[in-house]
Specification:
Structural class: alpha+beta
Radius of gyration: 15 Å
Oligomer: single chain
Number of strands: 4
Strand content: 15-25%
CATH class: Alpha Beta
Number of helices: 5
CATH topology: Alpha-Beta Plaits
Order of helices and strands: EHHEHEHHE
Length: 119
């Protein structure tokens, strides 16, 4: 199983309320669905980080920084499935639309995106 994981930090000039408005918008949902449709992802999840005391405790115990604000994950059975579709014109277009949308509320430089493989 190949996964694309996107750990997201909100822009410093965007309130949590505004971040959540962008995050939960119909426009974002439609973009995420287009990624699924174009890349034929097998599964997908979009999660917001909870504002709970346990997260503060974990940060203090580990000496870590603030958590990401949200996580997006897509799954594929094989990397070759994704790569066959990744460079199509349609995929390039939706990737650019996603970046343009995310720039409105996400600090892309402070966020992290990467592929993993389940063993």
């Amino acid at each position: 199983m190949i996964r694309f994981i996107n750990c997201i930090k909100r822009r410093g000039d965007i309130s949590i309320e505004d971040f959540n408005r962008y995050w939960n918008s119909q426009e974002f949902e439609e973009l995420l669905q287009r990624v699924i449709d174009i890349t034929k992802a097998k599964n997908f999840t979009k999660n917001l980080t909870l504002d709970v005391e346990a997260n503060v405790m974990i940060q203090k115990e580990r000496g870590g920084g603030e958590p990401f604000d949200g996580i997006i994950e897509y799954w594929w059975d094989k990397g070759s499935e994704l790569m066959d579709l990744y460079d199509t014109d349609e995929a390039k277009q939706v990737r650019q639309q996603m970046i343009d949308y995310q720039r409105q509320f996400i600090d892309l430089a402070a966020s992290s995106a990467f592929f993993t493989e389940s063993q």
